[in-house]
Amino acid sequence: MRPWIVWATGLLAYIVAVLDRTTLGVSGLAAAERFGAGPSLLSTFVVLQVVVYAGAQVPAGLLLDRFGSKVLIVCGAAVMASGQFALAFTESLPTAIAARAVVGLGDAVTFISVLRLVPHWFTPRRVPLVTQLTGICGQLGQVLSAVPFLALLSASGWTTAYTSVAAFGVLSIALILLVVKNTPDGAAPPVETTSLQETLASIKTVWLRPGTRLGFFTHMGTQFSVTVFALMWGVPYLTSAQGLSPGAAGTLLTISVAAAISAGVAIGILTGRHPHRRSWLVLGIIASNAVAWTAVLAMPGRSPLWLLVLLVVVISVGGPGSMVGFDFARTFNPSATLGTAQGMVNMGGFLASLLLMQSMGLILQAAGGLSFASFRLAWTLQYVVWAVAVVGILITRRKARRLLALQDDRSLLESIGN
């Protein structure tokens, strides 16, 4: 029972992180009024969040390997709470943008720190399922921002709503300090002073492990499509290009969350029972994403509603599918550098998402705005990312299998020698 209590407490911190990540998205109109900003300027908040989140992954991983999960989760929660407190009381747009960057920084360390707890507290067979449950249950933060936070914002105003979210973060800090331990025996990683050269050498070593790069390309190929759809271009595409009402577009995003939850449980069970088939599962998810988008983009006009629902369901599987990348990192990296490896894996999907969001924006602007034709052209950029990811998976999978074969041969020789 104790492992589940520790995990649930760490999970609460991740739920708060997702809540902090999504509060500005649901309060866009109130933010535009409060800060006097137009839609294009407000979109800077989203891009900045992704830039900070992706850019902080490797430093966060290095810190995680050095100080352990508990310290990083507490620090991340404290940083996010301070950013939300600043947002609660400021009316300055530059200050708000800076506060949002601070929130993104705290968010960047939380997820991989919670994931780091899992292999220490659960048996290897349970790790894939609990990893999936971490990603799935964390999305409750999005529900909290869409329902109680938005209701509080409407009823009591900006300052009260954002102060309440920050206070929730402070509560999670107290619970983490009381409950969470890095390992069952409470041992923390030894803190060692390393030079910049040694740090860079460690980063290079972790990256050169084929399992780390296999996780990176897995995360890249599976996650970016649904991330770009949910964070920026999905609702404009559904309303402007496909002619759906805002309410219908919101319903499709709700379906997306439900599909991800269902798929996550199935993927966690499958990867736990069939670890040697993980890469085939990932390639299948990428292929299904490409096929679903091809079916929609090949339509000469607006797609029928059933096809759009199918598209949303299929791409939503990419979210839990990306979690397999962390399982690759765990399999092919020692515990001492697992945080760094997980940070590198986590960069894959977010870097691809950032590049696609920006590139799509440029194409939409050059093609004349949010029209059916311009969106169809912009979404085709996904095929480039899928191609890069698939080639990367195939190459690194072959190298990872060779490494495993060499390790098995070495173990056999040692057993014979003994």
Automatic annotation (TrEMBL):
PROSITE patterns: MFS. GO terms for cellular component: plasma membrane. This is Nitrate/nitrite transporter. Residues 6-401 form the Major facilitator superfamily (MFS) profile domain. It comes from Mycolicibacterium chubuense (strain NBB4) (Mycobacterium chubuense). It is found in: Cell membrane. GO terms for molecular function: transmembrane transporter activity. Keywords: Cell membrane, Membrane, Transmembrane, Transmembrane helix. It comes from the Bacteria. It is a multi-pass membrane protein. It holds the Pfam family MFS_1. The chain crosses the membrane at residues 41-64, 71-90, 96-118, 130-155, 161-180, 214-235, 247-268, 280-299, 305-329, 350-373, 379-396.
